[in-house]
Amino acid sequence: MTGTVERTEAGGLLKEWRGRRRLSQLELSLRAGVSARHLSFVETGRSRPGRDMVLRLAECLDVPLRERNRLLLAAGYAPVFAERPLDDAEMDPVREVVRRVLAGHDPYPAVVVDRDWTLVEANTGVALLLEGVDPDLLAPPVNVLRVGLHPRGMAPAVANLDQWRAHLLHRLRLQADWTGDAGLDGLYRELASYPGADPGPPRGTPPLAVPLRLRRNGAELSFLSTVATFGTPLDVTVSELVIESFFPADDATARALGAPRTPA
């Protein structure tokens, strides 16, 4: 009886992921190199997928490593992806890479966050972004999206708050939908309840990317952000780390942060 429940649950989870990726059984079967009939039997629990089959389908569906472990457990197999805390000795190389990246990005702000947008590490440049933020929002664990959009966070200093808010909410909505993470869905609902409005269609020449325009000491600083992740991770924790780096979007901001002028 237990095996039947596990097989049905595994098949149901695979079906959920297939639906989330908007793939038909035929499309997924072609990607995975299995028959649509066999895939149908797996999803309904009539056939038990082998360990390799679970991993192959999860790979084709781009399922996060954390959820691949869950699929394996539901099918009756042991997880294959380790999940080590970041302070584990085996994670020393990861921490070293993160710290080198953060230090190398100074004086520009950069942060490392986990899958819940909880702050893991930051460089000294981040202090510029956090000026005036309520200390309660900076008490660990710090959620960087909450800090960015909360009325007692960075929001009052963001000159293009409606535009920046729409960008962050859209990004979070996509992440929640892609990962199926209920926690991210709850975070989205919380942040969407904060004051703000739809920025509407862009006027004039649309920007190449949405900047963060920050009021500081009577001036306006403008930043563009980039996101980096670890390539081909085999550890759940590593796969969920994101490094977000902010670069000056104009020469005035670069000068204000003590950086050389961008070459022509």
TrEMBL record:
It holds the Pfam family HTH_3. SMART domains: HTH_XRE (SM00530). GO terms for molecular function: DNA binding. Residues 14-68 form the HTH cro/C1-type domain. It comes from the Bacteria. SUPFAM superfamilies: lambda repressor-like DNA-binding domains (SSF47413). This is Helix-turn-helix domain-containing protein. It comes from Nocardiopsis flavescens.
